[in-house]
Structure formats: C-alpha cells, structure tokens
C-alpha cells in the first residue's frame, strides 16, 4: 500500500523527484498529490494498526512480542494525526511561511522513527538468533540512513538542493517495510516451532 502510494503520487506530481525530495513533500500543503495521499495514508495507517493488533493478540505469553505489537499499534494511532500536521512546500518554508503544522510534522517524524526502532528492537528479543541478527542489521541500516536524512533535512527549510534525501528516506522506509513482511512470515510460521518466551 505504502509503496503504491509513493509510486502513484510521484508519477502524478509534475517535477517531483523521488531521489531529491522527501516522501512528506507528496502530502505537503499545496502539493498536487495531497488529496490522493491523505486518504491512501489513512488506509495504510489502519492496516499498520491492525498488524500491530494481530501481533499483540498472537503474543499471549510473550512479553517482548506483546510490546512489539503495542508499539506498532501506537505507531498506527499516531499516524492518524499525520493529515493534520502537513509540512509546507520548500519555497514557502524558505520564504518564512512555515507554521505550527511544520513543527508538529517534525515531532511526529521523530516519534514515528523512535517507535519503529523500538518495535524492531523488541522483536529482536522475541525470536531466535537468525531473526535477532536480521533485526539488528535492520536497526543499523535505519540508523545510518536516518542520520544521512537528518543531515540533509535543514536544507529543506532553506530550499537548498538535497540530491539524495529521497533515496536515504526511501531506503529507511523500504527496510522497515521488509521487516514488517519478515515479521508476518515468522508469525505465520510460528505454529511450526515454539516462539521462545520473553525473559
């Protein structure tokens, strides 16, 4: 769903660059794709919340798995607020047109990334060694490309070139989405082996 949102929106936004612009710019105030992005984002958020609920329900005796599910539910609930905290387009920000929604948008971004990292971290403790290694590698990739994204972020407000920010951000999103898929597969196979109980 999220991948489709990105691809379709980027195709419909004339002049938009997936390499040099952030995902948030697709739903920015004044962006031609905002009216498409917001309802699709709502559906995506509901699906993430449902996935978190599914993990929560499947983790009756496993504390770390329950925490993972709870964090994803919180991730989804907070995501419902994204439409009410859009960023402005770069030229508006550079001209001093930023408002409270831009500040809230940044706060949402920080909280969302923190919830992602925590969910992946707790999932690492919920399963065996192979999944733990996978989760740790995922966390490292998120931290590396999250740092690269963060270093470029101030240039957005100044409307300066950010030739790779879209790539860094999409790598992060892709790595998180892959973790969701792997988590789903592991949970579906959980009947074939006992999920180790949390300590």
Automatic annotation (TrEMBL):
* Key word Membrane present: yes
Keyword check for DNA damage? no
Q: What is this protein called?
A: DUF998 domain-containing protein
Any Pfam family: DUF998
Q: Where are the transmembrane segments?
A: 36-56, 63-84, 104-126, 133-151, 171-190
Keyword vocabulary terms for this entry? Membrane, Transmembrane, Transmembrane helix
Q: Which domain of life is it from?
A: Bacteria
Q: Which InterPro entries match?
A: DUF998
Q: Which residues form the signal peptide?
A: none
């Amino acid at each position: 769903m999220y991948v489709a949102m990105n691809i379709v929106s980027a195709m419909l936004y004339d002049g938009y660059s997936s390499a040099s612009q952030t995902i948030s710019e697709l739903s920015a105030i004044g962006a031609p794709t905002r009216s498409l992005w917001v309802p699709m984002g709502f559906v995506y958020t509901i699906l993430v919340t449902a996935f978190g609920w599914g993990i929560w329900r499947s983790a009756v005796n496993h504390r770390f798995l329950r925490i993972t599910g709870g964090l994803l539910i919180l991730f989804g609930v907070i995501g419902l607020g994204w439409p009410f905290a859009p960023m402005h387009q770069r030229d508006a920000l550079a001209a001093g047109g930023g408002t409270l929604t831009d500040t809230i948008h940044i706060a949402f971004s920080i909280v969302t990334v923190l919830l992602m990292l925590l969910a992946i971290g707790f999932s690492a403790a919920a399963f065996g060694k192979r999944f733990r290694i996978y989760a740790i590698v995922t966390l490292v990739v998120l931290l590396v490309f999250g740092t690269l994204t963060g270093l470029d972020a101030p240039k957005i407000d100044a409307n300066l070139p950010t030739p790779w920010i879209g790539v860094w951000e999409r790598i992060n999103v892709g790595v998180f989405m892959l973790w969701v898929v792997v988590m789903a597969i592991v949970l579906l196979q959980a009947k074939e082996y006992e999920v180790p109980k949390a300590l």
